[in-house]
Amino acid sequence: MGKEGELFESLLQIVARLRGPEGCPWDRQQTPESLRKYLVEEAYEAYEAVGEGRPEEVREELGDLLFLILMVAYIYQEKGLFRVAEMLELCAEKMIRRHPHVFGEERARDAEEVLARWQAVKAREAREKAEEHSVLGNLPRSLPALQRAYRLGERASRVGFDWASAEEVLPKLEEERRELEEALREGHRERIAEEIGDLLFTVANLARKLGVNPEEALKKTLIKFESRFRTMERSFREQGRELAEVPLSEMDALWEELKKR
Q1: Which CATH number is associated with domain 145-212?
Q2: Fewer Cβ within 10 Å of end Cβ, the chain: N or C?
Q3: What secondary structure letter does DSSP report for 243?
Q4: Residue 131 pLDDT exceeds 80
Q5: pTM (predicted TM-score)
Q6: Concatenated DSSP letters for 192-213?
Q7: Which segments does the entry list as coiled coil (predicted)?
Q8: What is the pLDDT of residue 98?
Q9: Among 185, 215, 210, 219, which Cα is nearest to 200's?
């Protein structure tokens, strides 16, 4: 067993110690359900570190995520539902089975062909389990909605259910805008919500056709908005004024000035 294997075993022993009779009270009272929110948080911290290109933080955040995954898996092992070794074995078997062009006799020319074969293997697995298979897969509904919209559109496009170009999405965008405008005139709240959803989904698909991840684009816009808004707050506060006291016209004027900067 190499150093990585030894360290992995050591990490698992730390989990066992924390969960043991003389372990940490907090760790001992955790359940898979109580740790769900931390799985999401740690995954996003790793996601952000990778996106910002900070290797040292990526290393740390991936370690935190791995430890939490082991903690959840170990609790299932304690309950006798499955063993950590079984989880690792299943993962290894699945990766080998889904990469016949690497571990078997098949060959793949490019990434697109790999994706097609991946889908074919998943479809065969679903048939063997008597499960319904869809090109859309099983994207978790808890995924951020814009990211899920992006991924659903991406998966549908694999079978040709897509616009030929970004330019072809623009008329659909205008159609959805008009339908929202009509719903606003009617004042029907349920339809307004539905049309806003349709509009956002179309925007997500337009972003995909342009090679832009809408979730990432929106995050950058939010960071920009927050920074600019806080600067505006500080500016008026330095004048001894709170934003609630400032007329909208003055806020708009300063906002435009900050944009030019």
Answers
A1: 1.10.287.1080
A2: C
A3: G
A4: no
A5: 0.71
A6: HHHHHHHHHHHHHHHHHHTT--
A7: 163-193
A8: 86
A9: 215
